C-alpha cells in the first residue's frame, strides 16, 4: 500500500478510536468532568498520566536533544522522571486526601485566601497556556509531513478531535482517551527502536543495546560513536564538562525540571481521579513505570540515530569518501521538502561532507576531500524520531505508526492542559470567586464552555505561534517550579505558613523567575529586547535562564517563612485541616466544597 | 471537607514522624543517584567501566530512572504498612 494511505489509515483509525471512547465515557456531573468520578484504577491512571505527561517534546524532541548534546542532555531524563518521586512522596497522597477538584482550590483553601487562589489561577493559566502552544504546533507539523495537508488544516482537524472528546467527556473522557493514546504512543516509540537496536547491536532491548557492542566494529556503541564524532571534529558524546559553571547549571536545570514536573497542574490533577490515598501513591509509581519504558529507550534512539546518520553520510568511515548526493537515501529528499533538512554542495564535488566546521583544526577527512565548510547546513533535531524508521529503512507501516504516535503524544498532553485551564476558570474563578451561587448543572455547562474557549485560544496560538514555542517550555517549568510547587509543599508540610506569607512567596517566585527569563530571552520573548545574552557567560549569577526556576522556588520558601513569622498565626481550623490531610483515613469518594 | 476531621487518632504525631523519616530516607537516595552519581560525583565513578563509558553516564541516562521507580514502589509499600501499624488506613 502507498505510504500516504497507510499514514491516513493509522492516523484516521486512531482518531476514530479516541472519538469512540469519548462517546462511551461522557461526563454527567462536575465530579466526573473534573475528577472522572474518582473511580479510576491506579494502573489505568498511571497509563493516562504517562500519556498526559509525555508531550510532543518528549516524543519528538527528546531523542534529538540527546543525540546532539549527549551526556549533558541527561538533565531531561533525570529531571522529567525525578519529579515523580517528589509527586509520590510529597504531594499526590495529601492532595488526594484533601479531595479538591483543582490545584488553585487547595491553595485557596489551605491559605484561607482568595488572593492566593487567584495568584495560583494566574500561574496555572500562564504555565499551561505556554505549554499548549508547543503541542498545537506539533500537531500541525505532523499533519503536514505525513498527510501533506496545510499546516493550518491539520491543526483544525487536531483541535476538532480534542474539542470533541474533552468537551464531551471532561476528565473522564480524557482519561480513557489518554490510555488509548499511551498504547499508540508507546508502540510507535519502541517498535522502531527495537528494530534499530537489533540491526546495530543484535540486542532487542534498546536500553541495553546502548551499552552493547556495535556489530559492525565489535566495539561498544558509545566507543564507536565517540571515535566517529572525534574524527569529524565534534564534541565527545559521553564526556562531562567538569568546570564549575556547567556542573552548577546542569544541577540547577535538573532540579528545576524535577520540581517543575511535580508542580505542573495538569499532572497533579490526574492524581485526584483515583479512589484512595494509597492509590495515589501507587499510581505515581505506575505512571513512572509507563514513562520509563519510553525514557529508557530515548537515549538509545538518540545515540543510535546519530551513529546511523554518520554512517549514511560517511559510509566508509572517516577514511572513506562522503556520500554522493544523488545516491542519498529517499528520506533526505522527503525531509528537504519540509525545510527541516538542508544541504548545500559548497565545493561542488557532488558529495555531502558533514563535519564540525567550527572545530579548532579542520578534520583531516574534510581537508582530504577538499571541503572547507560543512555541507549539511540544516538538520532539525526534531526530525530524528519522525525520520528514524526511514533512516533505518524500516517497513512503511512502522512509519505510519510513528506518525500516529506523534499525534497521540501531542493531543493527549494538549487535552490534559486544556482540562487544567478550563477547570481553573469554571471552578476557581466562577464557582469559588465570582458566582458562588451557581448550580451544579450551571457549573458543568460553564466548564464545557470554558473548555471550548480554551481550545479556541490554543488553536489560535497554534496558528499564530509567537515564534518562541521552544523557549516557552522554560517559562512553564520555571513558573510551576517557583510558584505552585513551593505553595503546595509548604501547605502540606508546614502549619506555620500564613495567607500573607504564601501570597508574598508566590508573587516573589513568580516575578523573579519571569523577569530573569525575560532579561535573557527578551521581554515577552520579543527578539532583541533582552538585556543579557542567553549563555552561561552572559548570565547574572552564572545561572542560565532555563535553570532559574529552582532559585525562584528557594526565594519563595525564604520569603514565605520570613513573612509568616511576622504575621498572624494560621487559624486553628486550618491547622486541623492540615492534620487531617496528613492522615489517609476518611478520604472518601467525591466531596463537595 | 469530608468526614474524618473529628476522628483524629491519638498516635497521629508518631505516624507523621515515621512518614517524614521515610520521606527523608527516600529523598537522600533520590538525590544521591541523580545529582550525586549522575552529575557531581561522576568523576569519582569514572574508573568503573560500563559498555564503552563509565558508571556515572549510566546513572545519568538509565540508573537514576530505575532507582526512582524502585523508590516510589518502596514508599507506597512502606506507607501502607505504616498506615496499618498506626491504624490510620482507609476504610
Structure description:
The complex is a heterodimer of chains A (593) and B (91). Chain A has 23 helices and 4 strands. With 593 residues, chain A is an all-alpha fold. Chain A is globular and about 80 Å long. Chain A starts with a helix and ends in a 12-residue tail after the last helix. The mean pLDDT of chain A is 89. Chain B has a two-stranded antiparallel sheet with strand order 1-2. The longest helix of chain B is centred in the last third of the chain and has 31 residues, at 55-85. Chain B has helices at residues 12-40, 55-85, and strands spanning 49-50, 53-54. The two termini of chain B are 17 Å apart. Chain B has 91 residues and is mainly α. Chain B is built from 2 helices and 2 strands; from the N terminus they run αββα. Chain B is 66% helix and 4% strand. At the A-B interface, helix 5, helix 10, helix 11, helix 13 and helix 23 of A face helix 1, strand 2 and helix 2 of B.
Q: What does the radius of gyration of chain A come to?
A: 25 Å
Amino-to-carboxy terminus distance of chain B: 17 Å
Order of helices and strands of chain A: HHHHHHHHHHHHHHEHEEHEHHHHHHH
The 3D shape of chain B can be described as: elongated
In sequence order, what are the helices and strands of chain B, one letter per element? HEEH
Overall mean pLDDT of chain A stands at: 89
- Poorly predicted ranges of chain B: 1-6
> How many helices of chain B in DSSP terms?
2
Count of DSSP-assigned helices of chain A: 23
List the defining traits of the structure above:
heterodimer; A: 593 residues; mainly alpha; two-stranded antiparallel sheet; 4 strands; 68% helix; globular; B: 91 residues; 2 helices; elongated; disordered N terminus
Summarize the structure.
The complex is a heterodimer of chains A (593) and B (91). Chain A is mostly helical and 593 residues long. Chain A has helices at residues 3-24, 30-35, 42-53, 56-69, 74-98, 103-110, 114-146, 151-201, 206-209, 221-231, 244-263, 265-268, 277-295, 298-313, 330-336, 364-368, 383-391, 396-434, 440-463, 469-493, 499-521, 549-565, 572-581, and strands at 323-324, 341-342, 351-352, 378-379.
Amino acid at each position: 500500500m502507498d505510504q500516504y494511505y497507510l499514514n491516513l489509515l493509522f492516523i484516521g483509525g486512531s482518531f476514530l478510536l479516541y472519538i469512540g471512547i469519548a462517546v462511551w465515557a461522557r461526563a454527567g456531573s462536575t465530579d466526573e468532568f473534573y475528577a472522572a468520578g474518582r473511580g479510576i484504577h491506579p494502573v489505568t491512571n498511571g497509563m493516562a498520566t504517562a500519556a498526559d505527561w509525555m508531550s510532543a517534546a518528549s516524543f519528538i524532541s527528546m531523542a534529538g536533544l540527546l543525540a546532539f548534546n549527549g551526556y549533558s542532555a541527561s538533565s531531561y531524563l533525570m529531571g522529567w522522571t525525578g519529579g515523580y518521586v517528589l509527586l509520590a512522596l510529597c504531594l499526590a497522597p495529601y492532595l488526594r486526601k484533601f479531595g479538591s477538584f483543582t490545584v488553585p482550590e487547595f491553595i485557596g483553601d489551605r491559605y484561607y485566601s482568595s488572593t492566593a487562589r487567584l495568584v495560583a489561577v494566574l500561574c496555572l493559566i500562564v504555565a499551561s497556556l505556554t505549554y499548549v502552544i508547543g503541542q498545537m504546533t506539533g500537531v500541525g507539523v505532523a499533519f503536514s509531513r505525513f498527510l501533506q495537508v496545510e499546516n493550518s488544516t491539520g491543526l483544525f482537524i487536531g483541535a476538532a478531535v480534542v474539542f470533541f472528546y474533552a468537551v464531551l467527556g471532561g476528565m473522564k473522557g480524557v482519561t480513557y482517551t489518554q490510555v488509548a493514546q499511551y498504547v499508540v504512543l508507546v508502540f510507535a516509540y519502541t517498535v522502531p527502536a527495537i528494530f534499530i537496536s537489533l540491526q546495530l547491536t543484535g540486542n532487542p532491548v534498546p536500553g541495553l543495546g546502548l551499552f552493547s557492542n556495535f556489530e559492525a566494529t565489535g566495539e561498544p556503541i558509545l566507543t564507536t560513536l565517540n571515535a566517529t564524532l572525534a574524527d569529524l571534529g565534534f564534541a565527545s558524546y559521553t564526556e562531562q564538562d567538569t568546570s564549575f559553571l556547567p556542573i552548577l547549571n546542569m544541577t540547577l536545570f535538573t532540579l528545576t525540571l524535577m520540581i517543575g514536573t511535580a508542580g505542573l497542574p495538569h499532572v497533579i490533577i490526574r492524581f485526584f481521579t483515583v479512589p484512595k490515598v494509597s492509590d495515589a501513591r501507587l499510581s505515581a509509581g505506575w505512571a513512572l513505570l509507563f514513562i520509563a519504558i519510553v525514557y529508557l529507550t530515548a537515549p538509545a534512539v538518540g545515540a543510535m540515530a546519530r551513529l546511523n546518520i554518520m554512517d549514511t553520510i560517511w559510509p566508509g568511515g572517516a577514511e572513506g569518501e562522503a556520500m554522493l548526493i544523488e545516491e542519498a537515501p529517499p528520506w533526505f529528499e522527503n525531509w528537504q521538502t519540509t525545510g527541516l533538512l538542508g544541504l548545500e554542495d559548497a565545493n561542488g564535488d557532488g558529495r555531502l561532507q558533514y563535519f564540525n566546521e567550527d572545530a579548532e583544526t579542520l578534520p583531516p577527512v574534510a581537508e582530504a576531500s577538499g571541503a572547507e565548510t560543512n555541507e549539511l547546513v540544516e538538520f532539525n533535531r526534531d526530525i530524528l524520531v519522525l525520520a528514524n524508521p526511514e533512516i533505518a529503512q524500516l517497513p512503511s507501516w512502522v512509519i505510519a505508526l510513528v506518525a500516529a504516535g506523534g499525534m497521540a503524544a501531542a493531543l493527549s498532553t494538549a487535552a490534559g492542559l486544556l482540562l487544567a485551564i478550563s477547570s481553573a476558570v469554571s471552578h476557581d474563578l466562577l464557582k469559588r470567586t465570582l458566582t458562588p451561587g451557581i448550580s451544579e448543572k450551571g457549573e458543568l455547562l460553564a466548564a464545557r464552555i470554558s473548555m471550548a474557549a480554551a481550545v479556541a485560544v490554543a488553536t489560535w496560538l497554534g496558528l499564530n505561534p509567537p515564534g518562541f514555542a521552544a523557549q516557552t517550555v522554560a517559562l512553564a517549568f520555571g513558573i510551576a517550579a517557583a510558584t505552585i510547587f513551593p505553595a503546595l509543599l509548604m501547605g502540606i508540610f508546614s502549619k506555620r505558613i500564613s495567607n500573607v506569607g504564601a501570597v508574598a512567596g508566590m508573587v516573589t517566585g513568580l516575578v523573579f523567575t519571569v523577569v530573569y527569563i525575560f532579561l535573557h530571552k527578551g521581554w515577552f520573548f520579543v527578539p532583541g529586547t533582552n538585556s543579557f545574552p542567553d549563555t552561561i557567560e552572559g548570565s547574572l549569577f552564572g545561572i542560565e535562564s532555563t535553570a532559574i526556576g529552582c532559585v525562584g522556588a528557594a526565594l519563595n520558601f525564604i520569603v514565605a517563612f520570613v513573612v509568616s513569622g511576622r504575621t498572624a498565626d494560621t487559624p486553628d481550623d486550618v491547622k486541623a485541616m492540615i492534620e487531617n490531610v496528613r492522615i489517609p483515613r476518611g478520604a472518601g469518594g467525591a466531596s463537595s466544597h | 471537607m469530608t468526614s474524618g476531621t473529628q476522628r483524629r487518632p491519638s498516635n497521629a504525631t508518631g505516624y507523621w514522624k515515621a512518614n517524614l523519616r521515610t520521606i527523608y530516607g527516600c529523598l537522600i537516595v533520590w538525590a544521591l543517584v541523580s545529582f550525586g552519581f549522575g552529575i557531581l560525583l561522576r568523576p569519582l565513578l569514572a574508573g568503573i567501566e560500563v559498555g564503552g563509558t563509565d558508571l556515572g553516564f549510566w546513572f545519568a541516562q538509565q540508573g537514576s530512572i530505575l532507582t526512582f521507580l524502585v523508590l516510589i514502589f518502596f514508599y507506597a509499600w512502606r506507607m501502607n504498612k505504616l498506615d496499618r501499624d498506626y491504624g490510620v488506613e482507609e476504610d
